Each structure stands twice: as C-alpha cells, then as structure tokens.
Backbone:
C-alpha cells in the first residue's frame, strides 16, 4: 500500500543497456552532424549543432543519469576519437557539462505523456548546455590570449560572438533539433522501447532517487573538478604575470610554466591512478 | 558550383565510411602506432597542457613544427586534417572580423595567430597520440591508467558497431526518400528542400532507436553470459588483459627525442627573440 512512490531502480545489466543504447545512437548522430556542412547567412550560422533530441528522449524515457552519461561518452567516442578530434582534457569539461544538462532535463519530467513537461525539459536541457558552453568558451579565449583586455575590441567581440552563438544555437538547434523532435518521439516511443530492454515503462508513480545519485563521492568529485578548473585558470593567469614581470630573466619564466605544466600532468596521472584504486575499494565495499 | 558538386560527391556516405574504417584500422603499422599507449598518454599530457602556459611565439612555433612532423608520421587520413583546418580557420576568422567590427585594428592578428597556434599544437598532438592508436590499444591504455572497464568496452564496441550503424541509418534514410515525395519546388534559398531533409534525418532515428534497443539488449546479454560485469571489476582479469602492454626501447627513444627537442627550442628561444 505504500508502493506509490516506489524507487525506480535498474539492475546492473539494465543500466548497461541504457548506457550502450544512448552511447551508440547519440554517437552516430554526432558523427552525422559533424559531417553535414553548415550554412552561414551573414553572421547567422545555420549549422546542425547537435541532435539533442536523442539524449533528451532517452533521458526522459529511461533513467536520466545513465542515458546522459552514455550520450556524453557516445559523443566523445564516435564524434571525437573516431574523427580524430579527441582533445584529451577538453573532453572532461564537455562530459561534465553535457551530462549535467541532460540529467537535469531528464529529472524534470515525471510523466512522459505530458507534452508540456517534455517541452519544458527539452528547452531547459539545451539552454543549460549552451549557456555553460558559452561561459567555458569565453574563458578559453581569456586564458589563451595574452593581455586579453589590452587587445582593443577583443573582449567585446568574444562576448558578442559567444553570446550570439548561444542565442543562435538555442533558437535554431534548440527548437528544430531538440524541442520538435523530442515532442514527436517521446509519446511514440513511450511504452514501446522499454520492453525491448526488458524493463517497465516508468510512469509518474516512480521517482528517481536524487539522493541515490548525489552520493558524497559524486558531490566530492564535482567539487574537485570545479576547483581544478578554477585552479587552472588561476595558474595560467599567474603564469602570464610571472612571464611579464620577469621578462628580462628570459627563460626562467618559461621553465616555471613548463614545470607547472609537468606538475599538472603528473597530478592528473596520479589522480587517475589513485581514483582507480579508490573505486576498486569502493566496489569491494559495496 | 561545379566544385561544390564534386566535393559533395566525394562526401558520400560510402566514402565517409571507408575513411572512418581507415582511421580506425588502417594505419597501425606506423612507428607511432607501435608505441605503448602509456607513452603516448604521457607525451600528450605535456603537449595538451603546456601550450596554454607558453606565450613565446618562438617556442610555440617550434612545438607546432614538431607536432606537424609527428602528425605526418602517423599517416592520418586527409578528411580529419581537412575538418581540423576548417574548424581552426573558421574560429579565428570570426574573431578577427568581429573585433575589427568593434573598432579593433589589425594588431589583433598577432594575438589571434598565437591563439590559433596554441590550439593547433594541442589538436595535432591529440591527432598524433590518439588517431594512430587502434581502438583496442586505446581501450587497453585507458584501462591501464585506471579508467573503468565499461569505458574501454564502449570504445571497442563503438568502433565495431559504427560501420553497421552508419549503414543501417543510411538504409532507413534512403528508404524514406524512396517512399516519400520530395518537395516540387526548392523554395526560397532551398528552404523547402532543407526542411524536408531535416525531417527525414530526424524521422530516420525512430526505427533506429527501436532496433538499437534490441541490439543493446543482445549485447548486454552476450556480455552477461561471459561474466562481463564481474570481469570489469576483477583485478586478475585486468592483469591478464593488459599483459601484452610493454614499454620498450622505441618508447624510451621517442620520449627522449621529444625531450631533447623541447630542451633545444627552449634554450634557443633564450637567444632568439621575435
């Protein structure tokens, strides 16, 4: 009788199925969008940014976390590694941003038959994703260009371009490739695709246990990642300053920044290795 | 127009598939492909991060030359290089035009060139490191540095499945085109035709979603019969899987050459100023 708010749980294999499904489909779509040429009408860029409707649909229909992370991996594996555009560390940022956006879109919907909810979720997902992307792009030029503020016209133009492309993507890709297709696909697939994976369709009685995903470890990793991102920014700013200040010392500054890069590389490797060990222990405890 | 047409011919689905298969399986006989994945990760860990911290044009140019050399050594497909160049040029070109619009002068070209150089070093380094690695080796390497087994499985799975998936999508798309009716008039700026193709591209995913769901289930069931979930977290299995990874003479040689080269440009940058 107390089954009304039953937990939506999946077995390990079902999680893997959702992951694989989301990965392959979004990966494939990513590849297609990478290869379709874009049309520019003046500054307005009518490119197919991404087929956001695939992860959105899957996040709404299945467990949002596994669908979202599967889609992110799909993008990296098919869209980046296979096309030779794998940018190593940059992919971490993409992974976090995209997973977050899609996951949020997925938890908004608790009744896939409700079109209003689905629509709101689709738009929210795209807006979150594009906004975070815009912020990170601006930050990249900021870091990459020495004396960013001193170069006349550059700060305004970066903000203008990124802001414009944000609006462009939200309005064009967001409506054409997220909102409309999601509204078309979700009601058609609901109840049809779940049995193929051997699971019940989720209805509005089931709730995703947010506390089950936001485990301390997950939060800790998130905090560490954002701290690391900020640290990167700070370090590079500092690197520029040292370089300017010690201009007559010549290569000293370069050696410092070189050492910083080497240390960061080393730390990354160490974190990866110890993370593995921790995960192993965590799994043993479970 | 004729050039555009011949280009469009080259970019057919078939052509792309062949190029991709080449990328995945074609060039595993080059020197760099023979290196241990860990060596390449280490190498990339430097070339992927260091450019952000270097503002000397001389050093950046030296690094760029070096990664161009290594990229040539990997014999990477031309499609990939083309996509890369297009992306880089597009980005900086846009920034240049917009800053001129906001009252900047041509002095902006130099900082932008430096930025482009940084980005090129990073992307060419990633092409060198990751394009020459066959999917199996990349998966093994990632497993070795502690990425969960699911990820390396997904990579090998992706590489194997992609050609099949691509073909299936192409079939569905073509059958929709055969059965459907394309718009009689192209409309303003080919508006109707574009909308028609976008609709088809989206609709083609509907059957693919269902068939892929079936396939995902089969895959996971097959994985289960082989004890996949258990194998992902068992250290003994991992050890057995990674037994063939070995850092040999070539790896040390490659790293040594890179370090020597870097040291030489850093030292010569001390004497050369430009």
Residues:
């Amino acid at each position: 009788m107390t089954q009304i708010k039953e937990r939506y749980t999946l077995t390990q294999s079902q999680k893997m199925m959702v992951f694989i499904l989301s990965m392959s489909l979004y990966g494939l779509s990513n590849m297609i969008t990478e290869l379709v040429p874009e049309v520019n009408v003046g500054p307005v860029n009518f490119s197919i940014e991404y087929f956001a409707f695939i992860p959105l649909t899957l996040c709404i229909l299945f467990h949002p976390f596994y669908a979202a992370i599967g889609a992110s991996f799909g993008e990296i594996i098919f869209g980046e590694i296979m096309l030779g555009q794998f940018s190593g560390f940059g992919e971490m940022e993409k992974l976090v941003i995209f997973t977050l956006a899609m996951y949020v879109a997925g938890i908004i919907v608790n009744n896939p038959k409700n079109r209003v909810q689905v629509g709101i979720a689709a738009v929210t997902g795209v807006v979150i994703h594009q906004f975070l992307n815009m912020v990170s792009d601006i930050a990249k030029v900021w870091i990459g260009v020495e004396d960013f503020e001193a170069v006349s016209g550059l700060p305004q133009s970066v903000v203008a371009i990124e802001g414009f492309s944000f609006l462009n993507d939200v309005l064009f890709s967001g409506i054409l490739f997220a909102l409309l297709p999601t509204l078309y696909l979700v009601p058609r697939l609901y109840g049809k695709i779940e049995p193929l994976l051997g699971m019940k369709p989720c209805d509005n009685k089931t709730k995703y246990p947010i506390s089950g995903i936001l485990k301390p470890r997950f939060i800790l990793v998130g905090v560490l990642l954002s701290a690391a991102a900020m640290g990167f920014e700070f370090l590079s700013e500092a690197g520029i300053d040292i370089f300017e200040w010690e201009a007559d010392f010549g290569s000293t500054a370069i050696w410092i920044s070189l050492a910083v890069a080497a240390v960061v590389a080393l730390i990354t490797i160490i974190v990866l290795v110890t993370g593995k060990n921790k995960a192993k222990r965590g799994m043993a405890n479970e | 127009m004729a050039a555009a047409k011949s280009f469009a011919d080259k970019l057919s689905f078939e052509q792309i598939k062949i190029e991709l298969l080449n990328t995945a399986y074609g060039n595993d006989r080059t020197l760099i492909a023979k290196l241990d994945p860990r060596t390449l990760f280490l190498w990339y860990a430097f070339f992927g991060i260091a450019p952000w911290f270097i503002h000397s044009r001389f050093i950046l140019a030296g690094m760029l030359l070096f990664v161009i050399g290594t990229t040539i050594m990997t014999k990477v497909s031309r499609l990939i290089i083309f996509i890369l160049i297009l992306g880089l040029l597009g980005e900086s070109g846009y920034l240049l035009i917009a800053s001129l619009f906001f009252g900047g002068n041509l002095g902006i070209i130099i900082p932008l060139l430096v930025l482009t150089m940084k980005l090129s070093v990073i992307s060419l380094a990633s092409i060198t490191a990751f394009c020459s690695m066959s999917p199996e080796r990349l998966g093994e390497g990632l497993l070795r540095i502690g990425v969960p087994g699911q990820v390396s499985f997904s990579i090998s799975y992706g590489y194997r499945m992609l050609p099949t998936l691509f073909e299936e999508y192409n079939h569905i798309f073509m059958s929709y085109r055969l059965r459907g009716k394309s718009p009689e008039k192209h409309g303003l700026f080919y508006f109707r035709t574009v909308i028609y193709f976008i609709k088809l591209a989206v609709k083609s995913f509907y059957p693919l979603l269902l068939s892929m769901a079936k396939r995902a289930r089969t895959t996971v069931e097959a994985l289960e019969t082989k004890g996949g979930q258990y194998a992902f977290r068992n250290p003994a299995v991992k050890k057995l899987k990674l037994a063939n990874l070995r850092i040999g003479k070539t790896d040390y040689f490659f790293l040594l050459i890179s370090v020597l080269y870097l040291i030489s440009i850093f030292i010569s940058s001390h004497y050369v100023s430009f």
Remarks:
- Chain B touches chain A through 95 residues (CB under 8 Å).
- Residues 149-179 of chain B form the longest helix (31 residues).
- Chain B has 13 helices and no strands.
- Chain B has a mean pLDDT of 80.
